[in-house]
Every structure is written in C-alpha cells, then in structure tokens.
Known about the structure:
This protein is α+β, with helices and mostly antiparallel strands.
Amino acid sequence: MKKVVGSLAVLMIFPVAVFAQSSQTYSVQEGDTLFGIAEEHDVSVEEVLSENPGIANENVISVNQSIAIPDTDGAAAEESTGQSAEAAPSETAAEPAPDSEVSESEAAFEQEVVRLTNVEREKAGLQPLQSYGDLAEVADAKSEDLRDAGYFAHESPNYGSPFDMMTSFGISYSAAGENIAAGQDTPEAVVNAWMNSEGHRENIMNENFTHIAIGYAEGGEYGTYWTQMFVTR
C-alpha cells in the first residue's frame, strides 16, 4: 500500500492580506503554500527553493515573507515523490463517500492519534494539546475531501488552503498548522510517520499550539486518509 505524508504551518497574529508581486519577488499572503506559489508562477518547488536558500523548510513560510520567483517560462509542476507535502496520487475516480457520520472505530482511531501525539509532546516536556471538537469537523471534512476528490495536497480544490477551510468553518486562531498522511493502517503507524519527518514533527512539537483535531477517512486510492490540525487559541 502506498503511504505519503505532508505538513504545513502558518503563524499569524492578526489576519493580514498583503499582496505584492513582480517578475522577481512575491509577498506571502495568509493561506499561501510554497507549492501554490510555485504553481501560480508556473515553476517547480525545487526552482523556488533554489532561488531562496534561506527557506530551511518548504512546509513553513510566513505571511509577508518575500520570496524570489525564478524567471522560468512554463516550468513543470513538481512530481509526486511519495514523501512531499505536495505529493499527488494519480488521477483516478474517487470511491463513493460512505455515511458522513464518523463511525465508532474511526472516532477511536482519531482519539488514539491525539493520545499518541501528546505522548510525544510530553516526552519533550511540552504541554499536551487539548482536543477541539469544532476543529475535528474540519479535519474530518479534509480527510473525506482528500479521498473523494482524489488528491493529496494541503490546497483543496473545494476548500482552498487549510487556513481558508478553518475560517469557512468558523474556526478562529492566532496560529495554525496541518499534517496530512495517506496509506497508514493504524494510529501508531501514522504518528510514527509524522514523527520521522522533520516538517511534521515540528508541527507536533510546536510549543505555541494549544489545540488539536484529527480527521480519519477510509477508502479511495490510498485506503486511509489522515488529517491532523493544530491551532493556537
């Protein structure tokens, strides 16, 4: 079974919409991802990273950050690598969605991911994250969207960025992050996968986050889809 993971985080104090673009630089807006910026300018993520050696983690960019855009015409989008935050499954028809209500087994899996995440935080001397019921609705919807729309990325064709999605569901936050994964069979497997990847581990170990929610869905090309959302309230 194919397994992939992806992470994304944004830190902001107030919602600020700033847009400045030229042929050379781009100012990051709320909800942007590096993949989305690269796609908008018809270049690959690797080319953007090459132009911006100061970006240590492609999954973490800040609002108002200036990003140099390479002068490349018609560059191809990044291909799936199996570990990239923007890795996309091949285009296949999504399976019909099951009943939208979360089953008891799915709820148990989600609660176990929360528990295991807090175990890892406690090992590092961090405060445990509190479960956030309203955010869980967003995470469940994201996992179902990953499955039903047949994509694997932070940017949803239906909801936009994770931060747009949280806002549309009425979630308020001063900081937020998202980890996604697909193909892992158990809570232990998905938490281990996230902990063994720097970007995902940074979200899990972020001392500023206060609340967490997990979304789990079965079916689709990868068999299982996991969404881990964090916010600071």
